[in-house]
Amino acid sequence: MPSLTSVLGVLDPTSDRAVFRQIADALREAIDKGRFREGDKLPSETELVDHFGVSRMTVRNALSLLQQEGLAVSEHGKGVFVRPRPPVRRLASDRFARRHRDQGKAAFTVEAEAAGSRPEVDSLEVKEERPSQDISARLGSPRKVLARRRRYLLDGRPVEFATSYLPLDLARNTPIAQPNPGPGGIYARLEEMGHRLDHFDEEIRARMPSPAEVRTLQLASGVPVIHLVRTAFDAEGRAVEVCDTVMAADAYVLAYQLPAN
Amino acid sequence: MPSLTSVLGVLDPTSDRAVFRQIADALREAIDKGRFREGDKLPSETELVDHFGVSRMTVRNALSLLQQEGLAVSEHGKGVFVRPRPPVRRLASDRFARRHRDQGKAAFTVEAEAAGSRPEVDSLEVKEERPSQDISARLGSPRKVLARRRRYLLDGRPVEFATSYLPLDLARNTPIAQPNPGPGGIYARLEEMGHRLDHFDEEIRARMPSPAEVRTLQLASGVPVIHLVRTAFDAEGRAVEVCDTVMAADAYVLAYQLPAN
DNA sequence: CTTGCCCACTCGTCTATACGAGTATGCATC
DNA sequence: GATGCATACTCGTATAGACGAGTGGGCAAG
Fold this sequence. Notes:
Two copies of one chain form a homodimer.
Chain A: H1 4-8, H2 19-32, H3 45-52, H4 56-68, E1 72-75, E2 79-82, E3 89-92, H5 107-114, E4 119-129, H6 133-138, E5 145-154, E6 157-167, H7 168-171, H8 185-192, E7 197-207, H9 211-217, E8 225-234, E9 239-248, E10 252-259
Parallel strand pairs in A: 3-10
Antiparallel strand pairs in A: 1-2, 4-5, 5-6, 6-9, 7-8, 8-9
The structure holds a DNA duplex (30 and 30 nucleotides).
């Protein structure tokens, strides 16, 4: 096995770059060059202390940098590891198009099984609520809304949670207010109820997760979330649903196809 | 002025939650409640040390958490501040549609001025290169490509940098190989050259920036980047351009409109 | 063989101290 | 009044030490 010096090099005492940054640089370079691969254990804090001849806080500072960059994750009692890249779920822009509406299962389940993963849906909750200001504005200021919350998991790992909001006058006492709205999901039910869907608006943001989101999605440090808000409009131009989704950014790539004219 | 105790409360010594997390919680809550607003200075490390009766490293640990969450930014010699939310640039999905192709200025310039900001383009560079494996695959494996790099700034702040790649056999000795390709940009030139554009594919990811990206975009810690790769296809189905864009996530919201059928 | 404990190793948290470096202010000097 | 310096504040970096807590292996007892 190669010596730590050949893998990580040594510090440059003449450099004005902070020592912990030099250590982080050395580790980052070693990872980039494949000397450490996904899931590999990095040298322990003690080993790095001995190798570089610095104090433990300095080493921890360096490792903390790598974790903020999303390059490494630490596991209490085990060590610090190169962060494994999870399989990525690709969301096509036409995933809610009418022609793709499966009559049996939910879109998430169909796609996950096609990709060879085990899908789960979780923390299902259907409630009547007063809408937040933002949701209210998007739905045309209804007094109350029906909120459908759920969390999605892939092979046991939470990847996304979402809340759908519908004006209560539209959804009350319909299959939409049931935990399972039936084949084709709530979009199929909306169309059966005479709200032929015309188009969707999607807004995409990326940001660091709140502490609550870190818990719900079991996010490693250095992993942002993608925040997607989709509004569904019927043929009369009425907003009939808003779906607010927060996704673990390391589990998703969003794909859109756009006409050129 | 209110006492720190009334703003931040006190520690719960019976809690098993780490002290630095309790301090971070207190600050986060104060920010959420508006006790500290955008751009406000948080209490200095020394003040927090005195108030909570802990060591400075513990306070720094707490402040570091808030910075990782993107809630705060520190400025050497000045203090730690609630991170200001910059104005957000909204990118509509039809921004490259033919009907919007302005005959005078670049899309970025037009949009920025409409929003009342001062746009700049920077580090313009046009080069012939060997494509990376990824770019090569997207463009149908050309031996060489023309790469057009540039950085965009809004009111002096870098918000995005992008590289366009075109197969060299298509772009060599054309206006596209000039730093300024002329009115309507390279898409207008491509269409003049007989490559009528048919559609665009866009792929969106979010992740933490590399150290190089932090420098180029002058990113605060706790700010992810949005990575967008757009491929332009002509009417024959040939990929004629790939544009690789990295955006400061706190400066953008992407908006797409999708048909329902 | 299985169970259960101990121990060694890992990272997590916290204290105390020191000095460096960037910023802003006021005061003395020119 | 303008210049420049001293100073006091800010955060940045680094050391040394201590104890806690999670993990896993080995060994001894059953």
